[in-house]
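Suppose you are handed a protein chain with no further information: no name, no annotation, nothing but its sequence. What can you learn? This example shows the usual starting point.
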Amino acid sequence: MSDDPTEFIRSVMPLCATLGVRAREVSVERVALSLDWAEGLCTSGGLMHGGVLMALADSAGAACAYLNLPEGAAGTATVESTTNFIGAVREGTVDAVARPLHVGSTTIVVETELEAAERLVAKVTQTQLVLRA
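A reasonable first move is to predict its three-dimensional structure. Written in structure tokens, the prediction is:
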């Protein structure tokens, strides 16, 4: 793993580089990613697209699951994701913080909170399948 968390995230998930995602923290306990509002990431009315927010949350959750893989696992894949949108993002930076809720031998469950301007804008719970070689 690279010493630069952003370089690591962008190398394992090229979509993060395309979107401009930055990593602030990458550890087994917590993955923290950030994404700046940009017109090209919006839907009508200047609102950041829900799919972009879901991609940010999925990336944080996937990285968290990956870092918590059990011995002998080859990778992880999202098999279920539930997103509850609570607010809109019209400017600034969105911060995603993912934490493991359950780390098992076949699945890993991660909860990710998205905040903008210090207010909760979405909460995501996802189940990641543990892939074997």
